[in-house]
Amino acid sequence: MLAARTRLAQSLGAALPRTTTLARLGRVHLPALSTSSFLARRGFATTGAEEKTVPYTADKLTYLKRDPAFNQITEEHVAHLRTLLSPGSLLVGQSDNDNDLLPYNTDWMNKYRGKSQIVVRPRTTEEVSKVLAYCNEQRLAVVPQGGNTGLVGGSVPVFDEIVLSTNLLNKVRKFDPISGTLVCDAGCILESLENYLGDRGHIMPLDLGAKGSCHIGGNVATNAGGLRLLRYGSLHGTVLGLEVVLPDGTVLENLSTLRKDNTGYDLKQLFIGSEGTLGIITGVSILTPKKPNAVNVALVGLKSFEHVQQAFLGARENLSEILSAFECWDKSAAHLVQAHSVQGNRNPLAEEHPFYVLLETSGSNKEHDDEKLGAYLEKLMENEIIDDGVIAQDATQILNLWSLRESIPEACSKSGAVYKYDISMPLPVFYQMVEDVRARLTAAGVYGPEKMVTDVIGYGHVGDGNLHLNITAKKYDGEITKLIEPYVYEWAAKYSGSISAEHGLGLMKAPYVGYSKSGPMIDMMKRIKKVFDPHGIMNPYKFLPQ
Amino acid sequence: MLAARTRLAQSLGAALPRTTTLARLGRVHLPALSTSSFLARRGFATTGAEEKTVPYTADKLTYLKRDPAFNQITEEHVAHLRTLLSPGSLLVGQSDNDNDLLPYNTDWMNKYRGKSQIVVRPRTTEEVSKVLAYCNEQRLAVVPQGGNTGLVGGSVPVFDEIVLSTNLLNKVRKFDPISGTLVCDAGCILESLENYLGDRGHIMPLDLGAKGSCHIGGNVATNAGGLRLLRYGSLHGTVLGLEVVLPDGTVLENLSTLRKDNTGYDLKQLFIGSEGTLGIITGVSILTPKKPNAVNVALVGLKSFEHVQQAFLGARENLSEILSAFECWDKSAAHLVQAHSVQGNRNPLAEEHPFYVLLETSGSNKEHDDEKLGAYLEKLMENEIIDDGVIAQDATQILNLWSLRESIPEACSKSGAVYKYDISMPLPVFYQMVEDVRARLTAAGVYGPEKMVTDVIGYGHVGDGNLHLNITAKKYDGEITKLIEPYVYEWAAKYSGSISAEHGLGLMKAPYVGYSKSGPMIDMMKRIKKVFDPHGIMNPYKFLPQ
């Protein structure tokens, strides 16, 4: 016991400078990024130089055909749309590759690119209603777009669909500190809401890497999971009410702030995770937890995924109600983060380890939490479940440790093209998928030094059984895709997993829903779609198999 | 501070004998009651003597007319149904008041009574499918029935609908201790599941007074709330998957045990709270929390509801992640429990108080929880927010304190007829409804000693903003009803509340949904109903306005 304690303390001393005051705050956030600075980070706004690197989706995925039931947009349409909106709310492109519209046509991964010439940015729910009613009447297809941080091509057009952006719907409507209920516009940026609540002693019940750009409406529409689901549950539980505009312009107003309301079918649930295919979410009412008085973050190194599992079961037993995150990544992910020095990250542990786990506790009593976490980590050291570990000693160190985890997607992107998969499955086979894919790509001769595939990386939310499998390659290549898909989907189905734990279906996985849902389920989904959107104008070509 | 501590300790000493060992268990449960013993408790099974006391719903609510689109049941129907079921699964009545069928025709409150002559009790999902497909084809109306513990007349027939009982669908299918996921038949009794899980170190995420009789399928179909919602959230978050049979016999099989699955519309959410109007839930997959190592229960007495609110805000701040229940009741409720000596309950506090709060903590470390609870209660005493209090010292005392709260509905029933309302609303006006209703009934001259209305009682889940308003009367009386309804619904609407927090709509509130949902919302619900149940055979006359 003493030996373990000394070893842990030494690591702490070696890796991160100790300070006398432990952090009493929640995670420190960067200032919210505006959409333009986010786009600048992606290399868009300033030069437009990268535009040619993203081929049109329609050229790449030749099985997709523009639905002739949708009308082409005419000058009359544009003129009429202008009458429905406040000044400055309509963007009209002049050519396919117009720089103004490129950020709206291209996804975060630079993987999908549409050809829309029209972006509408309503400022009120009423404007959304008028625009949708008109598009529905005129059979003009519409893509709802929030922060455009999706990973499955769901938030950009395929052909010439009108982009309806929630950028300008960005006001907090009300916050009640007694109940912790927040009501806000759909276009509020997640991090801005977190900052707003932080000043009022609350936090958002969800947090994710894209928080500086993603919109709460998009989070709800895609049922975003993220880093706090383990503790605060899914949006199906925390969203209390929605305001939604249906394609025919009808506003379903149900921004309830009640924790309980059993009066009829819970329609809002259908919109949570519907990816903009049923209507447009314009307002969100959400239950926000109290900001914890005490937050601890530890990073530990482990020998194998078997050890990760043991550490997780121990955390559930010993940290129980204060456990707020249990994130894991492998050596390959850590290497990439080091290699690309994302935000100056370096390994705070003395040596390399096959696996890393970041665990966070959030509670109301710092002393109690320290005691629980200390006892738990000592037990892990003693039983040789972990090999090394550090505990953040202040808010900056908390941020630094989280940065190691949150930088992984960016580090992957810097490696070239990234094939991203997002699977949920039973914990015992969690990491086996990564190993099986590595073996498959190695056997096919495409993975290794100087080969097309440069890395196969596994990381994710162990507490939710949610693995992010990222495969980095020199470029997107049809042959590589064929080696991976539908293999990973078949794999997920074989182990009763889901082919999309949290990213959604979008364009990427629409053809593969059958791996996770039965025929009768998909049929019923199509019938539901028909009820809400009889002309199919909402986010076409996506979500469900055509 | 010292004075407060002494006072609290004295109360503890005076009211409940101290034991040296504090309880390290969850709440102790009574053995699960079988349906027959439950019915016996209601005075049904043995004599049938009370049957004449419950008038037929159809005679009482004359605005209800039997829908002629439904066929009358013939001998051919009965003969065919028999071929679809295992032996012993079909009960056929001989006359309107046949004793065998009375428990299926009459609700828990003895308020609603139907005239069904047929009860089917399938043993498998396949049998449910065959029965429903046949009923759908033959246009025979069906009422799904679980434990028949509903409070809004939703689980009994109005006319001659066939009762489809889940009594014989009562097997646990699987439990995974790593993920805590339980998959079971819809007819499993909640308390039996709690006992099953208790042996395996887990608990159900919901708990309610009717646990000895209610079925998990009925809990899901009515989106039951109950005593643990404050801590573990609603069934919309904890139910991971459902198996549902649609009216045409289609089985929607989606008993996923995954915590995250974003593949298509989350159809199961529609069934949670649909009250048997879309199909029949036959299987449930649900996330079960670890059984807490430490449970504490305290009962405190307070001067006013203003003090109750202050105590609640303090509990959220100081007990935070370990707070698992915050239940409140008024002096009238306490009086009734004492008067009827339900299970020998007596006031453990030295004096009477205008309000009582039972609060429970559940955590992983007994010492930490004791310290948090002790410090919180001392602060309340010091600030004169509470006037007295006791903390349970062992499992028996925990059970006794809980019994004070859980006996309230039974005590009300023993007073005569009970008008039950179940409103959610913002906390500041929580108790005002009780006062306003008292004033209204007093002004009308019907409330007081020797009057028709004997008591107006308020109790409920403060943490969820959910008040149970019970009005006891010598008998159910149309004039009294008119004084209360729609007054309480108008009141709820005025304060942005819900006319049904957790009980559902059933027959009782179907006409009043408009107080909590807008016209477009109700229209959309009707369209959804049509998709799943085009012939309207599932639980007709209920849920939505006709």
Question: Can I get a quick summary?
Answer:
Chain A is 33% helix and 18% strand. The first copy, chain A, is of the alpha+beta class and 546 residues long. The N and C termini of chain A lie far apart (61 Å).
- Quaternary state of this entry equals homodimer
Note the main sheet of chain A.
Answer: 7 strands, antiparallel
Query: Structural class of the helices, strands and pairings of chain A?
Result: alpha+beta
Count of DSSP E strands of chain A?
Answer: 16
Number of helices of chain A: 20
Please give the radius of gyration of chain A in angstroms.
Answer: 23 Å
Tell me the helix content of chain A: 25-40%
What gross morphology of chain A would you assign?
A: globular
CATH architecture assignment name of the largest domain in chain A: 2-Layer Sandwich
Mean pLDDT of chain A: 90
**How many domains of chain A?**
4
Look up the CATH topology of the largest domain in chain A.
Answer: Alpha-Beta Plaits
User: What is the CATH C level class of the largest domain in chain A, in words?
Assistant: Alpha Beta
Which two chains form the greatest contact, residue counts included? A-B, 88 and 89 residues
